[in-house]
């Protein structure tokens, strides 16, 4: 391999901006499910803003807010 190709590969491995979306957010999803289980509610964060249905996570209307 050429040195420039090696540098490109190392850059893609060491900088998370180049990683696939699924790989970056997989730990976040696991943590979200862990918090959901602990709170016994899928929308556990909705208490932070009770005037918005589901706490603003899914399909809220800007007009409704």
Would you give an account of this structure?
The protein is an all-alpha fold and 65 residues long. 48% of the residues lie in helices and 0% in strands. The chain is built from two helices and no strands. The protein starts with a helix and ends in a 26-residue tail after the last helix. The mean pLDDT is 81.
| Contiguous uncertain segments of 5+ residues | none
* Helical content class: 40-55%
Q: Structural class of the secondary elements?
A: mainly alpha
Strand elements, count: 0
Multimeric status of the protein? single chain
For this entry, give a set of tags.
65 residues, mainly alpha, 2 helices, 0% strand
Describe the secondary structure blueprint for this structure.
Layout: H1 3-14, H2 21-39
Give a short overview.
The protein is mainly alpha-helical. The chain has 2 helices and no strands.
